[in-house]
Amino acid sequence: MMPNTQNFMGRSYECMSDCADMSSYLNKCHSCRVESGCFMVYDRPNYMGNQYFMKRGEYADYMSMWGWSGCIRSCRMIPMHRGSYRMKSYERENFGGQMYELMDDCDSIMDRYRMSDCMSCHVMDGHGLMYEQPHYRGRMMYLRPGEYRNFMNMGMSGMRWMSMRRIMDSWY
């Protein structure tokens, strides 16, 4: 991934792995080119704040495209996963309430499971993206294998997760 100023002008920085704070390399970053792999980018250091998924391609003016007022401050490389996807989704924090197991994309958690809220989950296999609106729209959050006991404690308070999409190896 190579972040630059707007329209690929000015200084650039090549990033081939996780970078918790890009401010020491670039004070502004308004365009980005992903030459291989997939990345999650964040508008705050240490993988915090708004998140956006980037796969191979050019993003000449991602700020207006995503409605961001800031710029990329950190990024995380998403490792390729070949195999099945398994996630248990819970309607309450700390794995409480109704539980549903997802093994494929879900464009509306509410319609499929009659689940009004998803407040915790356990990703057993694969990597995925949770979206705040049905049909993979709105703000998103990257989920890698692990336990997510309370989305509100992750800086996602007030957000309801309404759809989920797997990150597929064909995206690389």
TrEMBL record:
Record Pfam families: Crystall
UniProt keyword list: Eye lens protein, Repeat
Signal peptide (UniProt feature, chain positions): none
Keyword Repeat: yes
GO biological process, one term: lens development in camera-type eye
Entry-linked SUPFAM superfamilies: gamma-Crystallin-like (SSF49695)
Domain of life: Eukaryota
A molecular-function term among this protein's GO annotations: structural constituent of eye lens
SMART domains on file: XTALbg
Keyword Transmembrane (UniProt): no
Beta/gamma crystallin 'Greek key' domain sequence ranges: 37-79, 126-163
Similarity field: Belongs to the beta/gamma-crystallin family.
Function: Crystallins are the dominant structural components of the vertebrate eye lens.
Protein name (database record): Beta/gamma crystallin 'Greek key' domain-containing protein
Species of provenance: Monopterus albus (Swamp eel)
Classification of source organism: Eukaryota, Metazoa, Chordata, Craniata, Vertebrata
